[in-house]
Amino acid sequence: MARTLPGSGSRSDQALSLNMRLLAHHELQGFGGLGEGMAMQLARDGRRILWLAHESAPKNFTGVDVTDPRAPRVVVQTELAHAKVRSNSLDVVGDTMAVAYQTQTPGLKPAGFDLFDVSVPERPKLISHFDASGPHSRGVHALWFVDGEFIHMASGAADFQPRHPFDDQFYRIVDVRNPSRPVEVGRWWMPGTREGDSAPPPTRLDPKFDSGFRAHNTNVFPQRPDRAYVGYIDGGAVILDIADKTRPTMVANWRHSPPFNGFTHTVLPLFERNLLVVSDECVKDGGLDWPKLVWVLDARVETNPMTLATLPAPPHDAFVHRGGRFGAHNLHENLPVPSSWKSEEIVIGTFFNAGVRAYDVSNPYQPQEVAYFVPGAPALSPAGAIQLNDVYVDERRTVYTVDRFAGGLYILEMTL
Fold first, then answer.
1. What's the total number of domains in the chain?
2. Is the pTM of this model over 0.70?
3. What are the residue ranges in the chain where pLDDT is below 70?
4. DSSP E strands: which ranges in 55-191?
5. How far is the C-alpha of 361 from the C-alpha of 364, rounded, in Å?
6. Would residue 123 count as lying in a domain?
7. Residue 380: its pLDDT value, please?
């Protein structure tokens, strides 16, 4: 059903919902630009702090008290060093938070990640900085930090020169067991993408869709600590053997582009069912790179993942002309932390102007959409529509989703 979102200044004619109910909306003091970093801290004093990364200046990260999800309250907002850096990604383990920094162009600083002590959420304290800057590096785009010991990330490096400038970020593993002195222990890049490689460079996509052969999400789970599940953008989904972290090796590479239009974003394993859920990212406005989909793969033979289905896409004609991006992006990743909801049956993702959507994949050959929430366009949105960018679901089944421009934070209840 359609309804106006209280206090949002949004267009009620664009608002849609099914089996999701709005609990609260917070505009975060008017600072939007929210990225792909969402993490929940169960603080020592019993509060729940939702940490949010900003993908554009001036803000670095925001902490929101969501102990009562109907009454969110900002407890801290921090500033970026300058306007040419973004803190697109973050994760929290206990009282330690890792925050990624990517610059607009190679050669700038800060580029890498910071570790913060957030034991007092209102007063984050810098522990250390890992420098990933360099003449061909923009730093870290996305990181994964769930065990308190290693950060897995998509990053450039001072000693890495890509053959093509779009291929500047690769998979790196950093040991943070001594948080005051992070140290790299291993790395992997797609053969042929670095100057000096003996392998030939990969065949590029059509220039209007070419986004690069580089890493995006780099997920490692306790169910298989010897595996990294990497979205490698135009290189597809990659499974790496990281039993020896100093020498990651490729186990499998699933690619659907061409004929599709690239940008593999997230590889989410459903371990109990031998399935992989793989999301694309839409990166063009107005449906220019449509379709951008979420794929269900059979991973019973790990070295040969096979396509079973795609999640039913939101109706093209209803959204493609709304404004901004329309297509798949982030998934709730079943993070192996106490505050994260985990499901092998329900997959939840964000679809930019088509909102946040939930799918039942109990039959992997015929996934079914079971819930969605599409806010109206925020009053100040340059896209003219909502642009939901990321989603996090806590163990209470409360859904948190953010807008990449102006909408802020939406807190939802699933009524499935």
1. 1
2. yes
3. 1-12
4. 59-65, 73-79, 85-86, 90-93, 96-103, 112-117, 125-131, 140-144, 150-155, 170-175, 183-188
5. 5
6. yes
7. 80
C-beta separation of 230 from 237 below 8 A: yes
Tell me how far apart the alpha carbons of residues 68 and 270 are, in angstroms, rounded to a whole number.
Answer: 30
Q: Could you report the per-residue pLDDT of 195-237, keeping only the tens digit for each?
A: 999 999 999 999 999 999 999 999 999 999 999 999 999 999 9
Domain assignment of residue 98, yes or no: yes
- Distance from CA of residue 219 to its chain's centroid? 10
Question: pLDDT of 317-344, one tens digit each?
Answer: 999 999 999 999 999 999 999 999 999 9
Domain that holds residue 257: 31-324
Q: Which residues make Cβ contacts (< 8 Å) with residue 120, sequence separation at least 6?
A: none
Cα separation, 60 vs 54, in Å, equals 6
**Token pair 């800057």 in the structure block, residue:** 133
Q: Where are the beta strands (DSSP E) in 301-345?
A: 306-310
Output the six-digit token pair for 102.
Answer: 């990517």
CB within 8 Å of 46: residues ≥ 6 apart: 67
CB-based contact 200:139 (threshold 8 Å): no
- Sole residue written with tokens 């400038």: 165
Domain assignment present for residue 314? The answer is: yes
* Other CB atoms within 10 A of residue 158 CB: 13
In a domain, 47, yes or no: yes
Alpha-carbon distance values, 383 to 7, 80, 229, 394 (Å)? 20, 24, 32, 29
**CATH number, residue 45:** 2.130.10.10
Q: Using a CB cutoff of 8 Å and minimum separation of 24, what contacts does 307-313 make?
A: 307/254, 307/256, 308/275, 308/364, 308/365, 309/364, 309/365, 309/366, 309/367, 310/367, 311/347, 311/349, 311/357, 311/359, 311/361, 311/367, 311/369, 312/359, 312/367, 312/368, 312/369
pLDDT of residue 10: 59
d(CA 112, CA 114): 7
